[in-house]
């Protein structure tokens, strides 16, 4: 497969060179006229004026039907759908919506996808045009409805998913906007979380001149090792029936970690999440059952071993080296965390390879990736993955296509681009230490061997254009027990650059004002309509928010301070 992938990369490079000189050869003066717009290896399949107010998505669905969303409060806009076919085995769907009233701000926002993609994120596009942007999204070249099966026997579709669909969507959407408005977008932004975060970093690394600002949310950028980590966690709880940790025991883990660490990591003693879980070196052996103890209040020896593996992350069994970070303690029991991502509804459900039966999302993604992308075997059993040879094979075949881990962001910096990167400390989908590791790799790359002082101590170069915000208690991309709403997909009010990611990025790109903090909100029941429960400042890493005095629900009673260097024992070889 390695040779096959190499041939794909050569073919892709040739196609890119051929199409570099291709131009849009005709233009339109009306929205409907865009149906005749010529695009290189692509076509416009729909062009319609939407008068504004409401619009159902997917387009054409009936209000109230299953899967149909009625988007409200929309401006008048031109909806354009298109396809791109850069290879004979490609079919990349995309849509771009362009406000056609006075609300249009002349800017472009491209939205990332999630998981294995397979559909267009219409709600994100709708939110973007309500903010005045022209906006686009793609299905990443998959029509498999979120399953990985599109990759079986289709290596070109893997490349489309990896990065080619992004570039196709960017170039064609900008061409369509220019054809309609007679002007190129005056600013361009990319915004994505999860796989969309992987895509955001892919844009920064492969196409540094395409966007002026990029929002990176909890990125799956080390894709090949992330899915190794997901498989590792599932093997930990599934290999031995005695190792499975039911959801009923997760509060035992969370309460023990909080009892050991809450309020000692800069947070508040009454918090139900950790402010900085890397300060909490929690060992689940402290809650191992002793003779005569109620088993509902403790973990068995086998369950402790499984929990240790999940926290510790996968290590190469031969060398002992860390393959990918493990998960953080303190929020295991929140429904958005371990119950959804790691534990599933039961051991049988995890072994079923069926989300409808309650399989964990980690098992779903690990099975799909290794079955359909790596081994091209739909009967793959995640319990058979070898953490030496299979990891090497996966990296050789797919890392260059799927991973966005290149730390050299100097071309983006030279372009003047800015990045805001965020991740929840309680993320049970993508271990948050992955984001810290990537950020530190960029910092070291920029500092360089010739810089004065150790690269690991230098922050000035990276923070001029790239800032990372760690979010206490937040789950994957949002949700969870912590302050989790700051313009990251939660439909709270858009206030200002202190409370909203996109406004903060605009302020940085357009006014040269870097974000010194972002105020994050936790709404009552995670519902903006129910009102604000508390707020906290998010500080640019390596700063952390420390509680001072006064009302702990008020963000003004926290201050950003430099964090001490964390030495995580889990990073050491086993």
Characterization of the model:
This protein has 574 residues and is of the alpha/beta class. It contains 15 helices and 16 strands. The protein has three domains: 185 residues, no CATH class; 150 residues, no CATH class; 171 residues, no CATH class. The strands form four sheets. Strands 1-2-5-6-8-7-9-10-11-12 form a ten-stranded mixed β-sheet, sandwiched between helices. The chain has a two-stranded antiparallel ribbon with strand order 3-4. A two-stranded antiparallel sheet has the order 13-14. A hairpin with a 2-residue loop joins strand 1 and strand 2. Helix 1 runs parallel beside helix 11, helix 5 runs antiparallel to helix 7 and helix 5 runs antiparallel to helix 11. The chain starts with a helix and ends in a 12-residue tail after the last strand.
Short overview:
By secondary structure, the protein is an alpha/beta fold. It has helices spanning 2-20, 122-130, 155-181, 195-206, 223-238, 250-261, 301-312, 338-343, 347-351, 361-374, 389-402, 410-415, 433-447, 460-463, 501-511, and strands spanning 38-39, 42-50, 53-57, 69-74, 77-84, 92-99, 107-111, 134-138, 187-193, 213-217, 418-424, 466-471, 518-523, 532-538, 543-547, 558-562.
